[in-house]
């Protein structure tokens, strides 16, 4: 049995598919035979040299597949389990930890069981989005939300998700709603149904001139907890700042490092990878997927099959992506 990987040999080099060894698990790792991988904006950015520790390397974060081997201390998984998970090459710099291989090593703490009614391509859309949303909600110094549970009751608190139709936004909506928060989201009208399917109570078009007023009205007398700005780019604050001003300031979790911080608003950059999300993966995601409380959204858009398709998938990812996640089947 052998492995194949899409190697990156240097900045802006094309991916090179070649044979590689099947990784060995550490005590707390699992080895996954990947059947679908999703593409994130960071993947083509890494191909262009962003935060690559050494070459050759293997990129990729989002995966779904079948457990091939478990480490000596792993109890939640066994060989043959269907799983989804988040690969850690961005932090470890190790080629074995990149998702763009047939076999990848990931921490067991960053994986969950994929139920039989959710296929691999659907499962692969979630891990990065969940971990990014989770950092803004749960890690020390961020919003301090309660974790989701199986039977959360409305708690009278409101979270705003700016960019509710991004994959990070869809995950943020689902996490907050499953912990009892009311979620107000923004997106283009074409994606309002997606935000509602994820659980948003109200959705507004961020291009509407009345969006700040509409959101403030929707918050009403409920307690405003914070805004997740999944778009993060400086221009997004043209809309986010007036919303926050209507609510007299507060906390913004941001997918991009922020520039000068608007008055009365704390803006904090999120890196969506780390052990902070282990409690979610270990205690909630498996059951929530099985019960349907956590949906595999947005829809995967499969743009190829095989590691050779990744180069094309990166190009698609660098174009206009709306209401879906770009996926390659393996
Ligand atoms: N820091 C991290 O660890 C981390 C991790 C993952 C992602 N990210 C970043 O987070 C962002 C979201 O990633 P994603 O993959 O979840 O996104 P995505 O699914 O590709 O989101 C695309 C959607 O973003 C919305 N959008 C694009 N430009 C916009 C703008 N100027 N104003 C408002 N909405 C806009 C559009 O929604 P509509 O079509 O509804 O208008 C578009 O459909 C990206 O910038 C990504 O680089 C960061």
Would you write up a description of this structure?
The protein has 330 residues and is α/β, with parallel strands linked by helices. It is built from ten helices and 16 strands. It has helices at 42-47, 89-92, 120-123, 127-138, 167-177, 192-198, 211-219, 237-246, 278-291, 310-317; strands at 3-8, 16-20, 29-38, 57-58, 62-70, 82-86, 103-107, 111-113, 157-162, 182-186, 202-204, 223-229, 250-254, 265-269, 299-305, 324-329. Helix 4 (127-138) crosses helix 5 (167-177) and helix 7 runs parallel beside helix 8. The longest helix is centred in the last third of the chain and has 14 residues, at 278-291. It is globular. The mean pLDDT is 97. Bound molecules: NADP nicotinamide-adenine-dinucleotide phosphate. NADP nicotinamide-adenine-dinucleotide phosphate is lined by residues 40-41, 128-129, 132, 163, 165-168, 187-188, 191, 206, 230-232, 235-236, 255, 270-272, 321-323. GO terms for molecular function: oxidoreductase activity, acting on NAD(P)H.
């Amino acid at each position: 049995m052998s492995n194949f990987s899409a190697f990156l040999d240097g900045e802006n080099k094309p991916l090179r598919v070649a044979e590689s060894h099947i990784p060995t698990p550490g005590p707390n790792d699992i080895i996954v035979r990947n059947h679908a991988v999703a593409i994130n904006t960071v993947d083509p950015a890494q191909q262009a040299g962003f935060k690559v520790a050494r070459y050759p390397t293997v990129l990729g974060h989002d995966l779904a597949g079948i457990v091939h081997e478990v480490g000596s201390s792993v109890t939640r998984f066994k060989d043959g389990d269907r799983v989804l998970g988040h690969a850690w090459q961005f932090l470890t710099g190790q080629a074995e930890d990149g998702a763009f291989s047939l076999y990848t090593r990931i921490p067991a703490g960053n994986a969950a069981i994929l139920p039989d009614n959710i296929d691999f391509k659907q499962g692969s859309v979630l891990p990065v989005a969940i971990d990014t949303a989770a950092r803004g909600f749960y890690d020390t110094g961020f919003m301090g939300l309660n974790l989701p549970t199986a039977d959360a009751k409305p708690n009278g608190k409101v979270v705003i998700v700016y960019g509710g139709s991004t994959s990070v936004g869809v995950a943020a909506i689902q996490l907050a709603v499953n912990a009892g928060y009311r979620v107000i989201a923004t997106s283009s009208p074409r994606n309002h149904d997606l935000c509602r399917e994820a659980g948003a109570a109200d959705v507004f078009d961020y291009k509407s001139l009345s969006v700040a007023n509409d959101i403030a009205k929707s918050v009403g007398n409920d307690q405003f907890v914070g805004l997740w700005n999944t778009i993060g780019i400086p221009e997004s604050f043209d809309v986010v700042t007036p919303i926050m001003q209507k609510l007299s300031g507060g906390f913004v979790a941001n997918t991009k490092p922020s520039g000068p911080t608007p008055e009365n608003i704390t803006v904090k950059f999120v890196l969506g990878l780390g052990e902070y999300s282990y409690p979610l993966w270990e205690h909630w995601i498996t059951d929530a997927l099985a019960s349907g409380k956590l949906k595999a959204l947005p829809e995967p858009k499969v743009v190829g099959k095989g590691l050779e398709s990744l180069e094309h998938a990166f190009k698609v990812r660098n174009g206009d992506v709306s209401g879906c996640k770009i996926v390659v089947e393996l």
